[in-house]
Specification:
Helices cover about 60% and strands about 10% of the residues. By secondary structure, the chain is α/β, with parallel strands linked by helices. The strands form 3 sheets. The protein has an 8-stranded mixed beta barrel with strand order 8-9-11-12-13-14-15-16. Strand 13, helix 33 and strand 14 form a beta-alpha-beta unit. It is elongated and about 150 Å long.
C-alpha cells in the first residue's frame, strides 16, 4: 500500500489531564449497559444481579491488557487513532489487511456508543427541559453540536471536555460516597448475586455469563480511548501512561465501586430502569430534593463523554489508517485545525443513523463483536513485535508477563464472543460479520485506488484475492447450512439451537481469521519471493554478467556488479517458508560471487594504483621533505641548476635566500613540538613567498629562489613578508610560541657566478644576520666571506686551546647581603696567542656546537676543584654545566672521580644549570641530577625567570638554590615590573625554603632593595670583579672571609649575561 509521507505532523497541545478527560467517554460506559445487563431488552434476557460480577471481571481483563497497549502505542508516538491504528508494522509480514480490519472494527464498536449516549442525554434534556421537542431531534442536535466542536480542533475539544469530566467525576464520587456515609448500603444485598439464564442447565448458565461478559467487553476496556491522541499529547512518553492509568482508575470507579454501592442501596430492580430516574435516592441523603436533579446531570454529563469520544477518538483511527495506505484516501483528509473532517463527518453520520433507529441492544451487540476484534488484535500485535523485534528501543516496556496477560484477556474476550454472540440472534450475527468484513472491503477500495493511480487495472489477479474469495464462499455455505439446520430443529430444543449457533459463530470467526490471515501470509510470502527474484534478475545477475564480460576484456572500471540483495522475510515453517529459505541461500551465493568479482577487480585495480602511487611517492620523496611537503635539498639543487641555465641564457638575474628559524632549538628544548612548529612555519613561509621556489634543506634551514627581480626592492619586500610572517606568535597545542627568522640573500651574478658560490655567500649573509641580533635580513657583502673564514679559523684554534694551555679560570665572589664572601662562581676565559682575550660569547657557542664543551667542561671542573681544595678557607665554588654535558659521557662518574682525585669536599661544590637542561630528555636528566645530589654536591637553578618553564622546573626537581638573572637586577631600582618580579622570586624561594642569590648586583641601591626584600645572597661588581684566584689570596688564605668591593680591575671583557656563556 502507498503511504503518504508528505503529511504534516500533528500539533501537540494535550496534557495528561486533557487526554484523561477525553477517555472518560470510555471509562463510564457501564452507565448505559447496566440496564441491559440486569434485565435485558425485548427477547434478549439479562443476567440479573450477577451482572456486577461480570462488570468486575471485564474491568480486570482490561487492566491486564493495558500495559501491552501502552508499550504498543509508544513505539510510534507521532500517530493518532489509538491501539487499533498502531498494528501495521506487526501485521505487515502476515497480512496488511489485518491492520485495516482492526481499525475499522474498532471504529464500528464506537459508532453505536455515540448515538446511544446522545439518545440518553437527549431523553433527560427532553424530559426536564424541552418536553415539546422529539428525543431523536435533540439527540441529533447534540451529535451535530459536538461534531462542530471537533471540527474546530482537538484544543477546543479539550477545553470543552475537561470541565465536563470534572463535573461528571465529582458526581460519580458523590454517587458512591453519599450512600455509604448515610448508611443506606445493604452490604449483604450488595454482595449477593443471582444469574438469569436463557434456558436451564449449565450450558444455559455459561451462555448467559458469556453474553453478559460479551456486552461488558464492549465497555470495560474502553479506557484505552486515552491512546487515541498520542500524536497530539505533549511529552507522550510521560503523559500517555499517566492518562491511561488515570482512565483505568476511573473505569474501576464506574465498573466496580458504583455498581456494588448502587446494588446495595437501590436493589437490582431499579438498576434495570432509567438511571436518570433511579439514581435520585442515591443523592437524596445529602442533597434532599435536589437529588433527582443531581442524578439527571450525572447521567447527562457522563453521556456527553460517550457522544464526544467517538467523534474525537475513533474518527482519528480511520484517518490514521488512511494515511498508512490501508483505507480510502478521503478518510485521511485533515482541516486547517488538524481535524480529520472526513472521518469525523462519517462517524457523526453513522451515529445519527443508528440513533434514529433507536440503537437497539442487538445493534450494540453486533458492534461489540467488531469492537472485541479491534481491542484483541492490538494485544496480538504487541506480542508479535516482542517476538519478531525484541531489540527495538521501547520508550515504555510492559512489565514481565504483561504481554502474555494481554493475550489471555484477548482469549477470554474471544471466547465470550464465541459463546455469547449467538444469544443476540442470527440478524445480530450477520450484521456483526458484515461490519467486521467491511474493513477488508475498505482495504480493497484503497488497493483499487492505488492501482488506478499507478495506471494498473483496478483488480489484479492476485493470489490473495483468490484465496479470500474462496474463504468467503465457505462462510456463505456455512451460513446456508446453519439456516437449514436451525429451521429443522424444534423450538423446544433451545440448548441444541444455541449449540448450533455457537458452532456457526465459531466457524464464522475461524473463516474470518483464516480468510484474512492465511491468504495474507501466503500472498505476502509469494510477493516477497517474487519481488526478490525480480530484483535479483534485473539487478545483481544482469550486472554480474556484464561485469564478467568487462573483466574479460580488461576494462576494470566496468567490471562491477551492483549488489541489490534483500533477504526474504517469511515467518512460516511450511513449504513456502522452506522455499523462501532456499531462495535466500541462493541470493547469498550470488551475492558472494558478486562480492568476489568486485574483490578481484578491486585488488587488480588496487595493485595497479599502488604501483602508480609507489612510483609517484618515490619520486615525490626523492624531491620533497617528508615533514613539511616542501621541496628538499635535491629538488633545490635541481631547480637552482635550471634557474642558472635559464638566467645565463636570458641574461636575467635571480636571488638565493638562506633562512634559519631563530630560537628554534631553545623553544623546542623547553616545549617540544618541533614537528608541529616546523610544519606551521613552512606553511607561513609558503604563503609569504608567493610564487618563489621554497625548499627545506634540513633542520630549521630553508632556502628560496626568487627569479627575475628587476631591482633589490622586490627582494627587500619579499624578505619583509617572510620576516613578518615568522615574527607572529605560533599557536601550537594551545601554547603561544615566538621564534623569528634570519635571512641571508645573495644575487646572481653579482654575488656568485656558480651555484656553490652563490649558496655559500647567501649562507655567509645569513651568518651575519644572526650575529647582528637575529630577526633580520642581510644582503651579501664581500667582507662577510672574510668573517666566515675567521669563524672557521677560530673554531680550529679552539680545538687546540687546551693543548696550548690558553684557557684559564676567573672567579667572581659570592657574598651574603652584609658582604661576607662565602664562595666564588667559576668563569672560563680564553687568551688567544694572536687575538688576545676572546669574549666568551664568541667561543662558548662554538664549543657547544662542535662538542668541545664536554672536554673543556671536564678541564674546568678538575682545575676548579683542585684549586679550591688547596685553599685554607672552606669557600664554595659554583661551576656551570652545559646541556651538552648531560647528553655525552658519564657525568656522574666524572664528578665522583674528580672529587676523589682532588680531595675537595662535595659540600663545597655547587653546579649551576639552566632549565633548558631539564627539557631535553627530562627523565634521563632528572636521574643524573639525583645521582649528583647523592654525591653531596649542590644544584642551583641559574638565570631563573628568563626561560619558559622556570616554575615547572622547580616542581620537577628540588633545587638547592635559585639564582635571579642579572637582566632583572639591573633595573630593579628604576622599574616597578623588574622589582615585582624579583620580589616574587624571593618570596617563592622563601615559601619553598630554597635560598635565593641575586646575580649582577652593581650598585648600593640594588643591594639595599634586595636587603629590604629579604634576599640573603648577592653576586656582582659591587661584591667583586671576576679575576684570577691569585687576586683573592687574602680571602682564600683566611679562615673567615670579609667584605670585598672590587679588588681587581676590570679587564677587556664584560661579565656575560647568560650562564651558558660563563664556562
Amino acid at each position: 500500500m502507498q503511504r503518504d509521507h508528505s503529511l504534516r505532523p500533528h500539533p501537540r497541545s494535550l496534557g495528561w489531564i486533557g487526554t484523561t478527560a477525553l477517555a472518560m467517554g470510555g471509562s463510564n460506559q457501564s452507565l448505559f449497559l447496566i440496564a441491559a445487563l440486569f434485565v435485558g431488552q425485548g427477547a434478549i434476557p439479562g443476567q440479573g444481579s450477577a451482572a456486577v460480577v461480570l462488570l468486575i471481571v471485564g474491568v480486570i481483563l482490561s487492566w491486564a491488557a493495558a500495559p501491552a497497549w501502552i508499550e504498543l502505542i509508544l513505539l510510534w508516538p507521532d500517530r493518532v487513532g489509538g491501539i487499533a491504528a498502531t498494528c501495521s508494522e506487526a501485521f505487515r509480514p502476515y497480512s496488511p489487511v489485518l491492520s485495516g480490519l482492526a481499525g475499522t472494527c474498532y471504529w464500528w464498536g464506537w459508532v453505536p456508543t455515540c448515538g446511544l449516549t446522545a439518545l440518553l442525554s437527549a431523553s433527560a434534556i427532553q424530559q426536564w427541559y424541552l418536553p415539546d421537542i422529539p428525543v431523536e431531534f435533540v439527540a441529533c442536535a447534540l451529535v451535530v453540536c459536538f461534531t462542530a466542536v471537533n471540527l474546530c480542533g482537538i484544543k477546543w475539544v479539550s477545553r470543552l471536555v475537561v470541565p465536563i469530566a470534572t463535573g461528571s467525576a465529582f458526581l460519580a464520587f458523590a454517587a458512591a460516597i453519599i450512600p455509604i456515609l448515610s448508611g443506606n448500603v445493604d452490604w449483604r444485598q450488595a454482595t449477593t448475586f443471582a444469574l438469569t439464564s436463557p434456558f436451564a442447565g449449565w450450558f444455559g448458565d455459561l451462555t448467559s455469563i458469556m453474553a453478559g461478559l460479551y456486552l461488558v467487553g464492549f465497555a470495560a476496556p474502553a479506557f484505552e480511548a486515552a491512546t487515541c491522541h498520542v500524536g497530539e499529547t505533549v511529552d507522550p512518553n510521560r503523559n500517555v501512561p499517566r492518562a491511561v492509568f488515570a482512565s483505568a482508575a476511573m473505569a474501576g470507579l464506574y465498573f466496580i465501586v458504583l455498581p456494588i454501592v448502587w446494588l446495595g442501596a437501590l436493589g437490582s430492580q431499579p438498576l434495570g430502569m432509567d438511571l436518570a430516574v433511579a439514581l435520585g435516592p442515591a443523592f437524596a441523603p445529602l442533597l434532599g430534593s435536589f437529588g433527582k436533579a443531581a442524578a439527571i446531570w450525572f447521567m447527562m454529563l457522563n453521556m456527553f463523554h460517550g457522544t464526544m469520544q467517538p467523534l474525537a477518538g475513533a474518527s482519528r483511527t480511520l484517518a490514521q489508517l488512511s494515511e498508512d495506505g490501508l483505507l480510502p484516501r478521503f478518510l485521511g483528509r485533515r482541516s486547517a485545525t488538524d481535524c480529520p473532517w472526513a472521518a469525523t463527518l462519517l462517524t457523526a453520520s453513522m451515529a445519527i443513523l443508528f440513533l434514529v433507529i433507536g440503537d437497539p441492544i442487538w445493534l450494540i451487540a453486533a458492534a461489540n463483536f467488531t469492537y472485541l476484534i479491534g481491542i484483541c488484535l492490538p494485544n496480538v500485535a504487541a506480542w508479535l513485535l516482542r517476538r519478531d523485534h525484541p531489540w527495538v528501543d521501547r520508550p515504555y516496556r510492559a512489565p514481565k508477563g504483561a504481554i502474555v496477560l494481554g493475550l489471555v484477556a484477548s482469549g477470554i474476550w474471544m471466547l465470550a464472543a464465541l459463546l455469547g454472540f449467538q444469544q443476540f440472534g442470527l440478524p445480530t450475527v450477520i450484521v456483526g460479520l458484515v461490519m467486521a468484513y467491511s474493513g477488508a472491503a475498505l482495504y480493497a477500495w484503497r488497493t483499487i485506488e492505488d492501482r488506478l493511480r499507478a495506471g494498473l487495472p483496478a483488480v489484479g489477479q492476485s493470489l490473495h484475492l483468490k484465496l479470500t474469495g474462496a474463504m468467503l464462499l465457505v462462510l456463505a455455505l456455512d451460513a446456508a447450512g446453519y439456516v437449514i439446520a436451525v429451521s429443522t430443529v424444534s423450538a423446544e430444543h433451545g440448548a441444541l439451537i444455541a449449540a448450533l449457533e455457537d458452532i456457526f459463530v465459531a466457524v464464522a470467526m475461524l473463516t474470518i481469521s483464516v480468510g484474512l490471515v492465511l491468504p495474507g501470509m501466503i500472498a505476502h510470502s509469494a510477493t516477497e519471493i517474487s519481488e526478490a527474484a525480480k530484483r535479483l534478475t534485473s539487478g545483481t545477475l544482469r550486472d554480474f554478467s556484464r561485469a564478467m564480460v568487462a573483466l574479460g576484456r580488461g576494462d576494470l572500471g566496468a567490471a562491477h556488479a551492483s549488489v541489490n540483495i534483500t533477504p526474504v522475510s517469511i515467518h512460516s515453517r511450511d513449504e513456502i517458508g522452506e522455499m523462501a529459505e532456499s531462495f535466500n541461500l541462493m541470493q547469498q551465493e550470488v551475492l558472494q560471487a558478486a562480492h568476489s568479482l568486485d574483490d578481484a577487480r578491486d585488488n587488480l585495480s588496487l595493485a595497479r594504483s599502488q604501483l602508480d602511487a609507489s612510483y609517484q611517492s618515490i619520486v615525490h620523496l626523492a624531491h620533497h621533505d617528508a615533514l613539511t611537503g616542501l621541496p628538499n635539498r635535491v629538488a633545490f639543487a635541481k631547480h637552482l641548476a635550471l634557474t642558472f641555465e635559464q638566467s645565463i641564457a636570458s641574461g636575467e638575474t635571480f636571488a638565493v635566500f638562506c633562512m634559519d628559524l631563530d630560537n628554534f632549538k631553545e623553544v623546542n628544548d623547553v616545549f617540544g613540538h618541533a614537528d608541529e612548529l616546523l610544519k606551521e612555519a613552512a606553511l607561513r613561509l609558503t604563503i609569504a613567498s608567493q610564487d618563489a621556489f621554497l625548499a627545506r634543506v634540513g633542520g630549521d634551514e630553508f632556502t628560496l629562489i626568487a627569479a627575475h627581480p628587476i631591482s633589490l626592492e622586490p627582494l627587500e619586500q619579499l624578505a619583509g613578508r617572510l620576516l613578518a610572517t615568522a615574527d607572529d606568535a605560533f599557536d601550537i597545542e594551545g601554547q603561544k610560541l615566538r621564534i623569528g627568522l634570519s635571512i641571508g640573500i645573495a644575487v646572481f651574478p653579482k654575488d656568485g657566478s656558480d651555484a656553490g658560490t652563490l649558496v655559500a655567500n647567501a649562507d655567509a649573509a645569513l651568518y651575519r644576520a644572526k650575529a647582528e641580533g637575529r630577526l633580520n635580513a642581510r644582503f651579501f657583502e664581500p667582507e662577510m666571506d672574510r668573517h666566515l673564514r675567521e669563524q672557521l679559523a677560530l673554531q680550529l684554534d679552539l680545538r687546540s686551546a687546551l693543548e696550548r694551555d690558553e684557557l684559564m679560570l676567573h672567579y667572581q665572589p659570592q657574598a651574603t647581603i652584609d658582604g661576607k664572601v662565602f664562595g666564588f662562581e667559576v668563569l672560563l676565559r680564553w687568551r688567544h696567542e694572536r687575538l688576545g682575550l676572546v669574549p666568551p660569547n664568541d667561543f662558548i657557542p662554538l664549543a657547544e656546537k662542535n662538542g668541545l664543551i664536554v672536554s673543556i667542561g671536564e678541564w674546568v671542573l678538575r682545575r676548579a676543584c683542585r684549586e679550591a681544595a688547596a685553599w685554607f678557607a672552606p669557600l664554595k665554588i659554583a661551576v656551570n654545566l652545559s646541556p651538552v654535558q648531560f647528553q655525552h659521557g658519564d657525568l656522574v662518574n666524572l664528578v665522583h672521580s674528580i672529587l676523589l682525585e682532588t680531595g675537595l669536599a662535595p659540600a663545597r661544590l655547587e653546579f649551576e644549570i639552566t632549565e633548558g637542561v631539564l627539557i631535553n630528555d627530562p627523565q634521563r636528566t632528572l636521574s643524573i641530577l639525583r645521582r649528583l645530589k647523592s654525591l653531596g654536591v649542590k644544584i642551583a637553578m641559574d638565570d631563573f625567570g628568563t626561560g619558559y618553564a622556570s616554575l615547572s622546573s622547580l616542581r620537577s626537581f628540588p633545587f638547592d638554590k635559585i639564582k635571579i638573572d642579572r637582566s632583572f637586577i639591573v633595573d630593579v631600582a628604576t622599574s616597578d615590573q623588574a622589582a615585582a618580579i624579583v620580589r616574587a622570586v624571593i618570596g617563592l624561594g622563601s615559601a619553598l625554603g630554597v635560598p635565593v642569590i641575586a646575580e649582577g648586583v652593581e650598585t648600593e641601591a640594588q643591594r639595599s632593595f634586595l636587603a629590604r626584600e629579604g634576599c640573603v645572597e648577592v653576586q656582582g661588581y659591587l661584591v667583586g670583579w671576576p679575576a684570577s684566584i691569585e687576586t683573592f689570596s687574602d680571602l682564600t688564605a683566611k679562615a673567615n672571609a670579609g667584605l670585598v668591593r672590587g679588588p681587581a680591575r676590570r679587564e677587556i671583557i664584560e661579565i656575560p649575561r647568560r650562564s651558558e656563556r660563563k664556562r
